[in-house]
Amino acid sequence: MAMTELQRGFEVLLREHQKIVFKVAAIYARQAEDRHDLAQEICAQLWRSFSSYDERRGRFSTWMYRIALNVGISHARRERGQGERFEPLDEYLLDTLGGGTPIAEADERLPQLHAFIAQLDALHRALILLYLEDRSYAEIAEILGISETNVATKINRIKQRLRVQMRADETFTTGA
Questions:
Q1: pLDDT (tens digit, 9 = 90+) per residue, 120-150?
Q2: Domain regions of the chain by residue span
Q3: Residue 2 carries which DSSP code?
Q4: Residue 99's pLDDT is what?
Q5: Which parts of the chain fold into alpha helices (H)?
Q6: Are the C-beta atoms of residues 65 and 130 closer than 8 Å to each other?
Q7: Angstrom distance (rounded) from CA 147 to CA 140
Q8: Which of 121, 65, 111, 67 is nearest to 89 (CA)?
Q9: Are 20 and 64 in contact (CB under 8 A)?
Q10: 173 to each of 4, 85, 107, 119, 170, how far by Cα in Å?
Q11: How far apart are CA 11 and CA 70, in angstroms?
C-alpha cells in the first residue's frame, strides 16, 4: 500500500516533534508500559486530527501540545477514576523533560520539586511542563485554551505554593 502525501507529511512532523509526545506521556503515566500506551494513544489522536491541522492558524508544535495534553489529561482522569494514584516520576525522567539531557549537578531541593509537581492536578502539571520548557505565556495560553492572564495567575499561584512548601520543608528539616 502506497503512503499518501498526507501520511508522509504527518510522519515528518511527528518525527520532528516526537519529544513532545514522550514528555507528555512521562508527565501523565506512571509505569513504562503505561507511558508507552499513552504515547501510542497520543500519536493515534494526532493522526485522527491531522487533517484538521491548518498551518496558517499556528505552529505544529503548539497544535501538537494541545492534543497531546488533552489526551494526557483525559488519561489522568481515567486513572484517577479507577482509584489509581500518581507516584513521583522517575528522577531521570523529570531531569530530561526540559531539554532531553539529565541535569548535571542536581540541586539538593530537586527531589522536593519533583514531589511537588507529582502532587499537582493534570492542568497544573501541563502548565508547569510548558513553563519549564520556557514557553511564552501566550503560547501556553494557546495550547491550553485559557487566557494569558489566567496562565500568569496560575503559574504565580503554583510558584507561591512551592515557596511555602519549600520553606515549610526547610523549617522541618532544620528544626528551626
A1: 888 898 898 899 888 999 999 998 889 999 9
A2: 5-174
A3: P
A4: 46
A5: 5-16, 18-28, 32-50, 60-81, 91-97, 110-119, 122-132, 137-144, 148-174
A6: yes
A7: 9
A8: 111
A9: yes
A10: 60, 26, 16, 20, 5
A11: 21
Q: Cell for 15?
A: 518525527
pTM summary value: 0.67
d(CA 132, CA 144): 15
Residue 135: closest CA among 12, 20, 2, 47: 20
Burial classification of residue 137, based on how many CB atoms lie within 10 Å of its CB (0-12 exposed, 13-18 middle, 19 or more buried):
middle
- How many residues make up the chain in this entry? 176
Do residues 47 and 10 lie in contact, with contact meaning Cβ atoms separated by under 8 Å? yes
Burial tier of 29 (Cβ tally within 10 Å: 0-12, 13-18, 19+): buried
Extract the residue ranges of the chain whose pLDDT is less than 50.
Answer: 84-106
